[in-house]
Amino acid sequence: MNYLAHLHLGGSQPGEMLGSLYGDFVKGPLQGRWPADIEAGIRLHRQIDVYTDSHPLVLQAKQRFPSERRRYAGILIDLFFDHCLAAHWHDYAEEPLQRFTARVYQVLHEEAELPGKLAFIAPRMAAQDWLGSYRDFAVMEQVVAGMSRRLSRPEGLAGGVAELERLYLPLQQDFREFYPQLQDFARLKGTSRSAVDQLK
Fold first, then answer.
1. DSSP one-letter code for 64
2. What is the mean pLDDT of residues 89-117?
3. Which helix (H) or strand (E) holds 171?
């Protein structure tokens, strides 16, 4: 999943939000490098990624793409699923999207030492409202172009937005079936984590 989904699933407290994002920027063992709540968020982020990548509905979504695109289908699906979440946010969250994203940007602004590239992109994320802008499918063109620039073979995503547009309805259905299951998974992991913390 991409930034918005990880933030939505990771918890509402500042440390949980930070951990939800750090998961894309912090690699390797943690072992106390960060505060406990942030490290818990990073671990949940990693668990969500593993669950998502192996889920039958996500594998089904990847199969909808032409064989030559499969290597990059996961990237496109992550972005498209964030679009679906933003576009239908009220189906999955009680807090309005604009209020939620404002809280995320405030947490990032108040954190003095963001890791790696996150420190560089966080101000742009807030200024350009990356998270809220996912509602507009037209934004996918810009997002995919940005992703292409970070790939060793940028041509791999060429024409990707056109394929997302062609597959819009079946991929949206994949999302609607998958996301509630992912919410249940994240909620279970979060409950298990809280129970362990209470025993300490």
1. T
2. 94
3. helix 168-199
Tokens 């930070």 appear where? Answer: 18
Asked if residue 200 has pLDDT above 50, the reply is: no
| Cβ–Cβ under 8 Å, residues 167 and 65 | yes
Q: pLDDT band for 197, please (50, 70, 90 cuts).
A: very low
SS3 content of the chain, % helix, strand, coil (to 5): 75, 0, 25
CB 48 within 8 A of CB 1: yes
Q: Give which of 174, 152, 156 is closest to 77, Cα–Cα.
A: 174
DSSP 101: H
Question: Which residues 6+ apart lie within 8 Å of 130 measured at CB?
Answer: 3, 124
∠ at Cα 48 (128, 35), nearest 5°?
A: 75
DSSP designation for 91: G
Contact 157/72 with Cβ under 8 angstroms?
Answer: yes
DSSP assignment string, 145-169 = HHHHHTSSSGGGGTTHHHHHHHTHH
Q: Tens digits of per-residue pLDDT, 31-78?
A: 788 999 999 999 999 999 999 999 999 999 999 999 888 888 999 999
Residue 196 has pLDDT above 60, yes or no: no
CB atoms within 10 A of CB 168: 14
Query: Does residue 81 have a pLDDT over 50?
Result: yes
Give me the amino acid identity at 96: P
